[in-house]
Amino acid sequence: MFEKSFIITYFIPNHIFFDYDSVFPVIKIFKQWGRISENTWVVKTLMTPKQIHDSLKPHLPKEARVFVSKIQRNAAWSNIICSNDWLNENLSIL
After folding, report:
1. For residues 67 and 91, what is the distance between their CA atoms, to the nearest angstrom?
2. Cβ atoms within 10 Å of 76's Cβ, excluding its own
3. What is the chain's mean pLDDT, rounded?
4. Contacts of 44 (CB under 8 A, 6+ apart)
5. Dihedral of CA 3/39/50/76: which sign?
6. Distance CA 20, CA 38 (A)
7. Nearest CA to 6 among 87, 76, 69?
8. Which of 1, 24, 66, 94 is the most buried (most CB within 10 A)?
């Protein structure tokens, strides 16, 4: 088996106080991770989308919107936080 790339995005409603930095250590447990935008990340793992979701959910407010999906090289982007090279190298081929 080989690791696949997944996109994680989450949103916390404005009326909820949340320290966004508190979720970063949870995402950074993945061997390969890149921050795409403020609340969007790409990670490489052997986990399933549900397993990723379930590992993040306890660290987010219950009202948080969370989306996790496999992502492949068929993608386009601009003005991302991580480097273009990192993203090109870490998107799944399959």
Report:
1. 17
2. 4
3. 90
4. 3, 4, 5, 6, 30, 31, 32, 33, 90, 92
5. negative
6. 9
7. 69
8. 66
